[in-house]
Each structure stands twice: as structure tokens, then as C-alpha cells.
Write a structure and sequence with these properties.
The structure is a homodimer.
Chain A lengths: L4 H10 L7 H14 L1 H17 L1 E2 L6 E2 L5 H4 L4 E8 L2 H10 L4 E5 L17 H8 L6 E4 L5 H14 L5 E4 L15 H9 L5
Helix pairs in contact in A: 1-2, 2-3
Chain lengths: ~200, ~200
């Protein structure tokens, strides 16, 4: 009386996706089989292809199909500036600003001792080697302003300061279009402390 | 400066999943590549396998790996009762009640003229053939109580009534544990109209 096993297995396999529980997995499976078998075929092939071709860039640690990614190889980038971000999505967000023309280092996470993610797991030795290549002059810390992101930024700055590098942190403050009335007190306090001459 | 193409393709392919937009697709892709490549492998294989092995049951129209599904072949089911549901998930919900021991017919949708889904697209001729096999005596309409579900139930009852079959509709009313105070007026009105002798 049960469902066919290949359907069960598909539902179970879909649960590996972040944020997908048993109900959504079931809905997704039926949807794919009934409405979009071509999409399912494409997804299967894309997963397969991505797993086979993608690796980490030797310089910035992000996903690439080559040993060194396009961005790290580009002569139009200012290689004296190195921006440290947590995830590839953060790198994309930075790029969308068109306000940064340096290079990146993607940590692929943040320090999280409770989850067993320490400096070693995040490969800080590789970041250290990357930042002390003799070309990098300034390291811009662009980890998130969460507890973990802040701790990670702090740790990295402690690690790199003795190397004679300039270390900076992206600014906290009110968002563009932000109104004092609707901002939380901590953000306003930070904006006040980090005020600039005008 | 762009992302590797196999990563782009994976993100694009993940968007075929229902409820997954560009942001979630990106998050899912990074998650799979970074944290769960094994899950990704398994998902790719499960999709592939499901597409290859799953077909529609000749009798109830649900997904199965055989010509006729286990349930339709079972001698322990009352084959004089045929319950019509919209989707396989609805069938599962019915089964979880353990209150129905008949057989099913899964429409794989509901009438939705605006989306071009009419009686022909839903294969009502197959349902008609199934319901008039000479064994079925009662057809229980268990489509949803949405406009589309109601219209579908109405259409099916019109189609089957002249065939001398008993047609019934699952009841509307207050949910188990439901309180009048917190029920919407339409549900209470329906519960009143469909009141039973006590």
C-alpha cells in the first residue's frame, strides 16, 4: 500500500536542500514528475555536471571551473586590495555595488566554535598566505555584522595586524533611505559612534 | 568576472522547483556544493531514477513503478467504492485517516478553464471508464473545497449521475476541535446546512 520506492527516494533526496522539509519535498517531487519532468532532467544533469566540474579557486577560494578563477586572473583588478567575505553570495553582493575593484577571499563560513568551526576548519592559514603575498596592502573585512561575523573579523584582524597590513572593516550605520524612527537603537548608536566629518 | 557556467546552470535548474526563486536557488546551490555534495549526488540519481521508473497506474492514475499500482491490485480493498481526489498528496491524506478502504482515482489536478485545464485535459473519459467498470457502486468526491475543486466535483457528478452510480461528497463543517467563535461564517453556515440528525 506504500508509495513506489523511487518516489520515496526522490522525496527523501530532495530533503537535502536547505529549508526543505518532508511536506515541501513531497510537493516538489509531485510537481517535478507531473508538471516538469524536463526541469527534473535538467536539474539532475546540472547537479551532476556541477559536482564534476566545480572546484575552489586557488587564490580566492570561491567556486570555479579553473585552477584560478577569472576574477583573480584579471589584470583590471587592484590586487593590493583584498576583501574578505563569508560566502560566495556575499562576494556577489559586493560585486553588484560596483564600488570595489580589488580581489576577494571567500572564507566559506565564519568562526562558530559551538559547531566545531575554528580557524583551522576555515583554513585561516591559506588566508594568511594569500594576504601576505607582498602585493596586498589593505585587507577589507566584509564579514556579516552578526556575532559570528564580528568574531571572525576580529580574529582575522588580530592575525593580520602584526604583518604590517592595513586592516579595515566595512561601515555600520543606517541603510540608504533609512529613517531614524524606524531603525533599531543599536544601529543608530553605531551610526552615531561611527559618524564622519561633514 | 561572471560565475562559472556550471554553477549558473545549477542555480537556473534549481528554479524549476516550486516556490524556489533566484535567491533560494543560489542559496541551495552553494549549500549543496559546499556542505552536501553527497546529497547533491543522491538527488541527481534519485531524479534520474524516478524519471526512468515512474509511470501512471492504469487504474487510479497515480504514480507507480508498475502497470497497476499495489493498492489497485489489493484484494483487501473494497472495489465497489471509488474515491476521486485531485492529487497524490490528497490520496495520502485520505489514507492517513484509515477511514476509507475503497479504491481511488487521482485526477492530477482540477478543472481550471482559465489555465486551459478542461475535462479533456484532466482525462475525464478515463475516469468515466474507470467508474463504469460494473464493480464500482459509489463514487466519493473528495476534491478540495476551493472554487476549482467544487466545480470539478460538480462536473464529475453531472457526468456520472446518468450512469446509475451513487455519488457522494465528503462533508464540510467545523474541524475536529473547532470552536464556533473562531470559525469563519461560511464554514459555520455550511455546518448548519449540512447538520445531521442526532
Amino acid at each position: 500500500m506504500t508509495q513506489p520506492s523511487s518516489l520515496d527516494e526522490l522525496i527523501e533526496a530532495l530533503r537535502c536542500l536547505p529549508g526543505v522539509g518532508p511536506k515541501s519535498a513531497q510537493r516538489m517531487a509531485y510537481y517535478l514528475l507531473q508538471r516538469d519532468p524536463r526541469g527534473a532532467e535538467r536539474l539532475s544533469a546540472a547537479l551532476d555536471h556541477a559536482l564534476k566540474t566545480l572546484r575552489r579557486c586557488n587564490r580566492c577560494n570561491t567556486f570555479t571551473e579553473d585552477e584560478v578563477c577569472d576574477r583573480c586572473r584579471s589584470p583590471r583588478r587592484d590586487s593590493s586590495l583584498l576583501c574578505v567575505v563569508e560566502m560566495p553570495v556575499d562576494l556577489n553582493t559586493m560585486e553588484q555595488t560596483h564600488a570595489f575593484n580589488g580581489l576577494y577571499y571567500v572564507l566559506m563560513g565564519h568562526l562558530s566554535p559551538l559547531d566545531g568551526v575554528g580557524p583551522k576548519e576555515l583554513g585561516f592559514d591559506r588566508l594568511l598566505a594569500r594576504a601576505t603575498d607582498g602585493i596586498v596592502r589593505e585587507v577589507v573585512l566584509a564579514t556579516n555584522f552578526t556575532n559570528e561575523g564580528e568574531a571572525t573579523a576580529h580574529y582575522i584582524s588580530e592575525m593580520l595586524h602584526p604583518r604590517g597590513l592595513k586592516i579595515s572593516r566595512i561601515a555600520r550605520g543606517l541603510p540608504v533611505g533609512g529613517e531614524l524612527e524606524y531603525s533599531d537603537a543599536a544601529t543608530v548608536a553605531q551610526a552615531l559612534m561611527e559618524r564622519r566629518d561633514y
